[in-house]
Amino acid sequence: MEEKKRFRPNVAAVILSPKYPQSCEIMIALREDIKDAWQFPQGGIDEGESPKDALFRELKEEIGTDEIEILAKYPKWIAYEFPSKITKKLYAYDGQKQIYYLVRLKKTDKINLNTDHPEFIDYTFVDIKDVLDKITHFKKGVYKKVLHYFKKEGYL
C-alpha cells in the first residue's frame, strides 16, 4: 500500500518590481538554510488563516514589508514535493500545496531581510525571461506553470 503524501498548505508571492508594467522584473530571494536556493517568498498558512492574510503576514515576516498591490491569483492549489534530503532534514511534510499571488511591490526601499527570523540572505529582481534559470531545481516545474498562467492572462 502506497503511503499518502503530506503537503503543507502554503502561500507564495510572485513579486513584480515597482517599475511594473513598464518593466517586468520579478523578485527572487536566496534562502539562508539551503545552499544556492533562490525562490519566490512563500510561507505556511496558519490554522484558520486565509491565504490572502497569510500572504501579507509572510511577506512582512520574510522581506520586512507587506507594501504590495495584488494583481492576480493563480486559480487553484498547485503542489510540489521536496527533494528527499530536504524532507528528512527540515520538514514533517513531503512537499507543499500552494496558492500563488502575483503582486506589485510598492517601494523597493522597504525590503528588509534582517527580520526577526531571517529566511533569506539576499534578493534581486530579474527579468521574467531569466527567472527559471536562477531558481532552485525542484521548484522549476511549478514556477513554469504559474508564470505561464500569469503571462497567458496578460499580466506578464
Percent of residues in helices: 10-25%
**Radius of gyration, taken over Cα atoms and rounded to an integer in Å:** 15 Å
The fraction of residues assigned to DSSP E strands is: 25-35%
**CATH class category label:** Alpha Beta
What is the molecular shape?
Answer: globular
- The total count of strands amounts to 8
| Largest beta-sheet details | 5 strands, mixed
Helix tally equals: 4
Q: Examine the secondary-structure arrangement and name the CATH architecture.
A: Alpha-Beta Complex
Fourth CATH level, the homologous superfamily: Nucleoside Triphosphate Pyrophosphohydrolase
User: What's the order of the H and E elements?
Assistant: EEEEHEEHEEHH
Integer count of domains: 1
Rounded to the nearest angstrom, the distance between the terminal CA atoms is 43 Å
Average pLDDT over all residues = 92
The assembly state of the depicted protein chains is: single chain
Plain-language structure description:
The protein is α+β, with helices and mostly antiparallel strands and 156 residues long. The chain has one domain: Nucleoside Triphosphate Pyrophosphohydrolase, CATH 3.90.79. Helix content is 24%, strand content 33%. The protein has helices spanning 51-63, 84-90, 131-134, 140-152, and strands spanning 7-16, 25-31, 38-39, 42-44, 68-73, 78-81, 95-105, 120-127. 28% of the residues are buried. The model has no long low-confidence stretch (mean pLDDT 92).
